[in-house]
Design goal:
By secondary structure, the chain is an alpha/beta fold. Helix content is 36%, strand content 15%. It contains 13 helices and eleven strands. Helix 10 packs across helix 11.
């Protein structure tokens, strides 16, 4: 029989951290409000941190975090919680940055790096800073200019743990050169679970450096990956327990081979990332702290017997 919240062999201390990509999805058809979060709850981060010990920050992609914001994040989460942060889009998506701001993305300088460093300093000071994530678009190919730029970026942030998400197959076609480039600064190659196409990077789901392993699970919604009415439709995917079992094995093995391992669910539509993160933690034999709303368990019965369910009356009054 499943023991909700405390699987057999669980341990509160683990070098493996599982969370979701982002914690705030307040509106739209895929909102978490009223599903994972109580409808009237204002501050969602402390509630999220009752359930997971890490989160990947999406907002830092759209603008460098301010020190004041990062300080508030640190204050609203318990000791030992870790934030992984995406680098600002100016560092990885110059065309997207130019379109969004009307500014030239190719005038990168030490000032841009210093601004980002100042913003995340409170998290580092609080011992809550996880890896930085350089997420490149699928169009970022392994040519001389790209390798030179990536080398510059990794050197600029060499004081931090950096995970690099490369999506184009040219990087895995030249795997030795890619591994050598990343290993110079101890950067982890992000292992990606997503639909695979002809030009998609090929990966091993194994650590490329001994310091840490980093994995992002985007879902497998191949039909809606490139063609969709709403961008969030791409992430409308729920992994089955059987689909997650080999993922759990890979993450567990990575946790043995590397000092730390991180896995983030990015299939955020309608809190499916929360559901799959809980299942993955259970399959890894980890504790599942916190209570889950009955409405979430009703919608996703796979959680039954895995998580502790809060009282409907208590939840209604919150």
């Amino acid at each position: 029989m499943k023991n909700p919240g405390s699987p057999a062999g669980s341990s509160r201390r683990s070098n493996i951290r599982v969370g979701t990509s982002g914690w705030s999805y307040p509106s739209g058809k895929g909102t978490w409000k009223g599903l994972f979060y109580p409808k009237k709850r204002g501050d969602e981060l402390p509630f999220y941190a009752e359930h997971f010990d890490t989160v990947e920050v999406n907002s830092s992609f759209y603008g460098p975090p301010t020190a004041a914001t990062a300080k508030k994040w640190a204050e609203r989460t318990p000791a030992g919680f870790e934030f992984a942060l995406k680098l600002y889009q100016k560092f990885t998506h110059p065309e997207m940055f130019a379109k969004a701001t009307g500014k030239d993305a190719f005038d990168l300088s030490k000032a841009d790096v210093d601004e980002f460093r100042r913003g995340i300093a409170p998290l580092a000071d609080a011992g809550k800073l996880g890896p930085l994530v350089a997420q490149f678009p699928a169009s970022f190919r392994a040519d001389a200019a790209s390798r030179d730029y990536l080398a510059w970026l990794l050197d600029a942030f060499r004081d931090y743990a950096v995970a690099v998400e490369l999506r184009h197959r040219s990087w895995s076609d030249e795997r030795d050169a890619t591994d050598e480039l990343l290993s110079e600064t101890g950067a982890a190659l992000v292992q990606i679970d997503e639909p695979k196409f002809r030009d998609s990077i090929r990966q091993t789901f194994k650590p490329n450096v001994p310091a840490f392993f980093y994995m992002r699970l985007h879902g497998r919604n191949a039909a809606n990956w490139w063609r969709h009415k709403d961008r969030d439709d791409r992430y409308d995917y729920l992994y089955s327990e059987d689909e997650l079992k080999p993922i759990a094995t890979a993450v567990r093995d990575a946790g043995r081979a590397a000092k730390k391992a991180y896995a983030y669910m990015n299939n955020h539509f309608a809190a499916k990332a929360v559901v799959n993160a809980a299942i993955l933690k259970h399959q890894l034999g980890q504790d599942l702290p916190g209570e889950y709303p009955p409405g979430l368990v009703d919608r996703y019965p796979v959680l039954e017997g895995i998580v502790r369910v809060s009282s409907p009356l208590l939840r209604r009054s919150s």
